[in-house]
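**Polypeptide and fold**
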Amino acid sequence: MESEELLGNLGQEENGVPKKEKKSPLISLEKDLTFYADSIKEVAVEIMMEGISLHPIFIAHQHEVSIGEVILNKADLNTDWTIQASTLEEFIQKGIIHPDKKEQFLKTYKKPENYMCVFVVVPQGANFVYYPYPKEK
């Protein structure tokens, strides 16, 4: 699947003029992931307990993507990032992870009880990030 399919109508240019560089969106992502952590963990546990998948994946984006289901909408929560819930199986089905790369992916996949697996989508591309859940107090 091409990034254009995931990102919808998001472009690198506006009216034929390249967009100006902004500060890294990852700063606001860390803030939002910390804020969302309890909700994301709850959904991850639900995905695993209901037998949907042993490998939940969350998509963080600021635009529209066509994978997973919205669980935390930035517009509703007054945050910078929307989070969608998906699974390894859907990533393989949509061609984001090639079936031949499944085992390689699983070797790097961290325990979903301790880390959220986040597929971060930005205009420049997308990548997997493992973000630890805050320690229980």
